[in-house]
Write a sequence for this structure.
């Protein structure tokens, strides 16, 4: 047994630090005395050494060593071609058998591509994998290629690679999702798995599962919800965490926040270590004003893993809804560093940039989110908000019309189009018609109710607005709706109930500044003497307030510096 065999056995046993030290020493010996090891042994040493470096997460160094191994393999290949001619076929057989146990050259190339992917050198990774002949590509090589092609926007090549994965492994469900996300028809995808479904018992659910994800990626949220619910109710798949997370996500896309939160909580109870989908859950909780719960959730996920984007996004949402936009920007950028395909991270960073007045940078992030998730309306809403913030009403209208035509006339698309119409005095009546259609489809859709209430407020139709808000609040409780009802009640001089509505709004979201301002304004109007005294007291303590503001600016500058340090701007 040679020393190379000992290195190989240690590598197989997972003794990576030991392999790294020994292989390093042996490679130095080989450099000083080239005759010490054969070309095959040098190749083995380089591969085992690179594997140990890869395990230590030194990916650039590992890629370099793997490339050195490939160069050594070329030397070995030349030597093996020369050997038979000089010694004869019979003498060469032991040599060939011995070389059959060498580390696979295909596997080495895959490891190089893996290093490049981690280093975000996607073009280099594609170049390495493209160099492997199609017939020699294993399923994992095709899967990596498919994901890289998709990320690079080479959809046709991505589809071909995903199909090759399915040809080799018909139950590769992530490859199925990849095909459906690239607009391949559900029926075509299902046909590629039909043989295995029919030959293996208890797989009849798979065709329904494919149909559900086809609806998801086709933007048909209603049918997706019904299909997943039918799967989830089956005894064999009841309480499956992946299905619950998918169901929660579709409820979120459909604008049903209540059911989305409910399903996320159910999934979290079943799997306390769940990370997937928790960024969306944290965002919803932050938007609903439950910032303390969001802070706890973020801390718990950091304890599980800080190498995933989700905990950074959750902490970023907490900062965003606490109006600490610079910190939210930093956390969103950190999440993108960890996972450049995180739609929620892109939306977080885009929203932070928009609120900091950096609209053009925000537009870039919202467009990338749209590319990754073309059926998520919040990506389009973010972009439209940017256009409206920069007075680009024409661009916003074009985008809203495109969504309406592409995804159909549902409550969400109608409300988005109405939102843009409200910005133009010439299209107020069209906005009203669109909102009425949206509310006819979904009377409980909060965004449509809010926009209709805003329109009624402009028209000073306060009684009609009060009736609309009361009807909606009869079935659900929402901070913004209670606050708006308070504003309408003030307009009709019903101060006592207005105060009650502001109180309810603040109980739902203690950080809702507008409800607090409305309540304080009413208190000052009711007791002008107290208000004067309070104002004088505030004036006397003005220096303290300025100190707080300075601290806030200081913190923003600190996080901005950190962005530059990490190269995130």
């Amino acid at each position: 047994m040679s020393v190379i065999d000992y290195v190989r056995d240690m590598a197989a046993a997972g003794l990576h630090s030991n392999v790294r030290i020994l292989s390093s020493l042996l490679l130095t010996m080989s450099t000083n005395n080239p005759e010490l090891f054969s070309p095959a042994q040098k190749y083995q040493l380089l591969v085992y050494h690179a594997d140990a470096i890869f395990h230590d997460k030194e990916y650039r160094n590992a890629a370099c060593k793997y490339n050195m191994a490939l160069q050594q393999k070329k030397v070995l290949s030349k030597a093996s071609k020369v050997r038979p001619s000089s010694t004869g076929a019979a003498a060469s057989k032991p040599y060939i058998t011995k070389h059959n146990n060498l580390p696979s050259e295909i596997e080495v190339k895959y490891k190089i591509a893996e290093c490049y992917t981690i280093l975000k050198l996607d073009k280099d990774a594609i170049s390495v994998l493209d160099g492997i002949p199609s017939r020699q590509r294993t399923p994992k090589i095709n899967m990596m290629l498919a994901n890289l092609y998709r990320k690079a926007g080479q959809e046709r090549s991505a589809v071909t690679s995903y199909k090759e994965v399915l040809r080799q492994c018909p139950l590769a469900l992530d490859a199925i999702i990849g095909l459906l996300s690239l607009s391949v028809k559900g029926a075509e995808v299902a046909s590629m798995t039909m043989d295995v479904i029919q030959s293996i018992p208890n797989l009849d659910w798979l065709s329904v599962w494919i149909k559900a994800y086809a609806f998801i990626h086709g933007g048909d949220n209603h049918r997706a919800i019904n299909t997943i619910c039918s799967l989830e109710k089956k005894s064999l798949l009841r309480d499956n965490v992946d299905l619950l997370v998918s169901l929660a996500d579709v409820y979120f896309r459909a604008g049903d926040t209540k059911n989305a939160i409910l399903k996320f909580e159910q999934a979290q109870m079943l799997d306390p270590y769940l990370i997937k989908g928790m960024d969306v859950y944290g965002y919803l909780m932050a938007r609903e004003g439950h910032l303390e719960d969001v802070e706890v959730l973020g801390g718990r996920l950091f304890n599980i893993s800080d190498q995933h984007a989700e905990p950074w996004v959750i902490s970023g949402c907490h900062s965003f809804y606490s109006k600490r936009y610079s910190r939210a920007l930093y956390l969103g950028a950190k999440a993108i560093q960890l996972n450049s395909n995180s739609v929620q991270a892109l939306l977080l960073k885009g929203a932070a940039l928009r609120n900091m007045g950096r609209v053009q940078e925000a537009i870039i992030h919202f467009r990338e989110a749209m590319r990754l998730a073309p059926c998520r309306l919040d990506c389009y809403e973010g972009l439209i908000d940017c256009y409206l913030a920069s007075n680009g009403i024409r661009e916003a209208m074009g985008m809203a019309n495109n969504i309406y035509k592409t995804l159909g006339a549902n409550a969400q698309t109608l409300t988005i189009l109405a939102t843009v119409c409200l910005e133009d005095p010439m299209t107020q009546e069209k906005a009203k018609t669109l909102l009425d259609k949206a509310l006819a489809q979904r009377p409980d859709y909060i965004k449509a109710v809010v926009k209709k209430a805003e329109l009624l407020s402009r028209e000073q139709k306060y009684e009609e607005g009060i009736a609309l808000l009361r009807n909606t609040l009869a079935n659900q409780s929402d901070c913004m709706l209670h606050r708006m009802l308070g504003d309408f009640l003030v307009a009709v001089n019903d101060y006592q109930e207005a105060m009650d509505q502001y109180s309810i709004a603040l109980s739902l979201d203690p950080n809702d500044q507008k409800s607090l301002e409305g309540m304080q304004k009413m208190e000052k109007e009711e007791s002008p003497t107290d208000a004067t005294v309070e104002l004088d007291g505030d004036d006397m303590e003005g220096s303290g307030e300025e100190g707080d503001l300075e601290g806030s600016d200081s913190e923003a500058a600190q996080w901005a510096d950190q962005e530059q340090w990490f190269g995130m701007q």
Summary: The CA atoms of residues 482 and 501 lie 5 Å apart.
